[in-house]
Amino acid sequence: MSKVHAIILAAGMGKRLGGSIPKPLTNLVDGKTIMDFQIERLSKIVGVKNIIVVVGYKKEMIMEKFTQLSFVYNDAFAQTNTSKSLLLALRQVNDDVMWLNGDVYFDTDAPNLLLNTGFSCCLVDRKRCGSEEVKYDLNEDEFICHISKNVAEPQGECLGVNVILKKDLDIFRNELERVDNQDYFEKALENLTVSKKICLKPIDVGPFYCNEIDFEEDLKAVRNHLFTHNETASQQ
Questions:
Q1: What predicted TM-score, i.e. pTM, was given to this entire model?
Q2: Per-residue pLDDT tens for 59-81?
Q3: Region 107-131 average pLDDT
Q4: What is the 3-state secondary structure of the chain?
Q5: Which domains does the chain possess?
C-alpha cells in the first residue's frame, strides 16, 4: 500500500466495561490509555496518511486530548452501532483504509501484517471463542465467509483490526448504508463475503498480542500483558 487512512471507531458508550469516560480513554499503564497506544502505533506504520477518529459519547474528552487528529462526529451514537460510525468516516476517504475498534490493544507490529496482502482482510486468531466474541469461518477458497458473534463452527476470533482496499470501498460503503442502524460493521462484511462480492482474507496474528477490551477481565489481561512485557509509558 502506498498510502492508507487509519480510522478508529470511538463513538460508543462502552457500557459493558462500566466506566464514566469514553472507553478508549481507559488507563492501561502509567496513565497511558488504550487510544494513546493505538495512536502511537498507528503513527509508526509506513504509509499511514492520516488518522481519523469517529467520536460521539463525551466527544470533547477525546478531541481535547488528541488535538493533532482528524475527527468525525456521530451525533446518533446512542442510536447507532459501528456500521454507521464507520460509514461516516469512510465518506471522507477514497484510498485503502485500515480501521479498528477504539477498545482494542495490539502489539506494535501486529497491524503491519495486514499491509500488502493484496486483499481486504481482517486480523484474526485461531482460539476457542466465547459467546460475546466476533467469530469467523472460511469458505472453500479459504477466505472469510461468516463473521459475527453467532458463527456455528468458528475458526477463531476476528480481533477488531481490518483493512478494506480502495477497489472494495464503494461496495462496502453501499452495504454499510443498507444494514440496520444497530448492526456492527461486521454485518456488512458478512453480507458481502457470503455473496462473494468481496474476498476477505484472514490474517493470523501469530506471535503478536491483540485483545479487544470489552469486559473487566479483558482489561486485566491487557494490563497483565503490559506488566509481564515491561511495557511502561516511559519506555514507549
A1: 0.94
A2: 999 999 999 999 999 999 999 99
A3: 93
A4: CCCEEEEEEECCCCCCCCCCCCHHHCEEECCEEHHHHHHHHHHCCCCEEEEEEEECCCHHHHHHHCCCCEEEECCCCCCCCHHHHHHHHHCCCCCEEEEEECCEEECCCHHHHHCCCCCEEEEECCCCCCCCCCEEEECCCCCEEEEECCCCCCCEEEEEEEEECHHHHHHHHHHHHHCCCCCCHHHHHHHHHHCCCCCEEEEECCCCCEEECCCHHHHHHHHHHHHHCCCCHHHC
A5: 4-229 (3.90.550.10)
